[in-house]
Amino acid sequence: MTASTTEKQGQGTRCKVQGVSAGPELSCALHLEPCSSILLNTTAEDHHIARMAAVALGLTVLESAIPSPLPGVKPGLANIVTLIVLARYGWRAAAWVSLLRVMAGSLLFGNFLTPGFFLSLSGAALSLAVLALVRHLPGRWFGPVSHSIYAAFAHITGQLLVVYLWLIPHAGIAYLIPIFATAALVFGTVNGLIAARFMDNKSLLIHENHERHEKFTA
Prior knowledge:
Blueprint: E1 3-9, E2 12-18, E3 33-34, H1 44-64, H2 78-89, H3 91-109, H4 115-134, H5 144-167, H6 177-217
Antiparallel strand pairs: 1-2, 2-3
């Protein structure tokens, strides 16, 4: 585009182009034609995902301030949000929240495309793959706690695979498996209990609101 002027008329926008057309992406021709605003068509689900991803990112920032006795051994607080989203909105929404948290966290901490980023990504990806399978298990015997434990073990497994296949291809990595497995069991159990307690309180609140609504309309 060689030259252009934009004239605002009310709430609309009109483009005046001289020479070369601005292209279809701006919806302008060589003559005076309205330029449509570039808007993202979002849904309620998109808003839920964005809010939950922001909460997960906040927990990741909080977790980064907690000292760790061994690199890679962290509570995984953001997994609490993933479990809640999985139960409330399904696996697709949980995958978006988890992956957005990894991407945004890597950009925030400045480790995008570094080994740390790929460690987080591999752990999150394998955890999501496991959750996609275990969520179909009977809910009578399997719930947020068991899901959290499975996801924690999958997360550790994904990270250890990246370390062994890429960063430190040495059999000595096997000596760290008991430590990481213990951490996955402990933190997975705690995170699952927190997620289950939150979902129970949320269900109770929804039930009470429903009863009040029925009494009011009766």
